[in-house]
Amino acid sequence: MTQAPITRAAEATPPTVARKIRGLSDRAIAWIFVGPTIFLLLAINIFPLIWTINLSFTNFRANRPNREVEYVGLRNYERILTDTDIWLNMQATAHFLFWTILLQVLIGFALAYLINKKFKGNDLWTTIIVLPMMLSPAVVGNFWKFLYQPQIGLFNYIIAFFTGRDPSSFEMLGQVTLAPWSIVIVDTWMWTPFVMLICLAGLRSIPDYIYEAAEIDRASKWRQFWTITVPMVMPFLMLAVLFRGIENFKMFDLVVQLTGGGPGSTTELTSINLKREAFEKWRTGYASAYAIILFVTVFGLASIYVKALNKVKER
Amino acid sequence: MTNSKLTAVSALSLAVAGLGASAQAEDLTLCWAAWDPANALVELSKEFEAQSGHSMNFEFIPWPNFADRMLNELNSGGNLCDLLIGDSQWIGGGAENGHYVKLNDFFDAEGISMGDFADATVYAYSTWPKGTPNYYALPAMGDANGWFYRKDWFEREDIRAAFKDATGRELAEPKTQKELLEIAQFFQEREIDGQTVYGAAIFTERGSEGITMGVTGALYPWGFKYENTPGSYDMEGAVNSPEAVEALEFYKEFYETATPPGYTNSYMGESLDAFKSGQVAMAMNWFAFFPGLYADPNTGGDKIDFFVNPPQNQAGSTLGGQGISVVAYSDKQDAALEYIKWFADPEVQQKWWDLGGYSAHNAVLESPTFKDSAPFAGDFLEAMGAVQDFWQEPAYAELLLAMQKRIHDYVVADQGTAKEALDKLIQDWTETFEDEGKL
Which of A259, A242, A250, A249 is nearest to A312 (CA)? Predict the structure, then answer.
């Protein structure tokens, strides 16, 4: 008769080791299992965070390791919070976040609603729609740079076709009024499929019998949509908003490829500015304070949001 | 001694001798930007490999990432590079942070005299503190920002006549910055052979150093100074002088009225593309690219000519170019110094120029045949006689990024006035120098 693997493992354990393990409590064994993970978490996440907080009160520069480090108290925080240029970066980030999330949620939900209907070629359309999110941001950035090119760009020609304007009369990436929208358009193009997939999961999780019961009660399609579909998809939608919010708060690669933060500083999002401070200007202490402010902002907003999400789920 | 013992001793001797030889031969890595002159240096270095027995490896980084990549390497004490041809502005940081080996003793021991190299290049590429006889690099590649233009268009009778009608003067290489703008505006959106062409490609890049290198091409001829008194960091009245304001307004007008659409973030590559594709009549770029442009089968040869950055109130060109340094973290410093010794040789310097590199050695530059050796050689000499460089302070990156932001905000994003942009620049720079303990 073949023995179970666990029995074989127990028999193969040397008696001295087996004795030691037998003497351990369940809690001790649990610690043995989670210990390495906790150690890694402390080493990779918690220690750097504490170290960053410490650096944020200094004038440390990573490119001058030999220079004496001075504690400057709250000076870095004060400088950041009173710097009008940084508030402009925050505004640019807020504009980007608000519009990308709004458009992605609206279009993503609409696409999911359509794709959820049974029709011929449904799978093919789903695959085509999700293609943009599979591309590298660097590729997407370069690709859209060509599309936005005022002389040869397809985007300008399409706009010109519908508006009758000269294609080279406007510069999506070069005009202060248009550049913030150019990055919103590209991010929406790339990440709407992600929101669509999450919404699709939500829509497919709604049992058919609920709609059948509503039909029996003679509820209209409009009423079914607002009283069944939207509330039941809402937790999924909120999750998508959370994911996209956190991701776009950190947005860097796509925007750097498209505009480099320009024209001027119009599309210089906080993450781009932070990178410049930390790894181009090498103001490590200042950049640490900047990172902590951003971390607290994201963490605070995300915590409030998660509480709201849990309330929605409880309903 | 028996035959077998003799054989064993001989074999051992040969092995030891072989070991000695292989211990001296090193694998050296030279780091530089990825551009035309780097290819010429690879070719040139084959001679060093043959002479020394060392083998040369090259790490060439594209320009937009060059500073980031190399400064990170130096700051982390990395030994990827034994030799580094670093930008002129890095010399302060390289010296003060201990990244570069000080070369004075080596130069003395090997009889290498800095007096053999062009003064401007020694000052800019080798010395720290500026102008003192403390050398951290050997001038490797002289360079400045210059101009090139479509000579074939400038010679066409119909275009010349139209230009004369429009301006009242002959179409020729500009003698002032204002003439340069006038010519560029003349070509802007002009139909030539059925194509719409534009005035000129200038530098407007935001991310690294582009727009600063471009705008200083206007600021220096107007008489821009970084400080009222060198070394005092007193910038008020110098950086934002009426001449500086006028020059900045000029550059903005140039950008708005004489460049192709969409030129909001363009640097070396975009300038070359615009010219080679027949889109612009003129373009600014570094002399380093001129040999390649002249050799271009479509827009080079008889179709191209070159001119030095035109003066306005005075002559002035933006300095490019680099010195070659030995990296302090290299464990092959002796072999790296051998390379520098070889590179400093006047014959090697002549070959360097012949291959397309810009030698800074007086033996090459002062040769009676130099001016006629290439169509841009005379312009190069003229430019190097009036070059000015950006700050070379250890905090140069911070100073540069501040200028990138303020200039781009004003010129491309059309925010505020030229005076406000320069005033804000002084505030930024003052903060940096205060942090540095220099103010």
Answer: A242
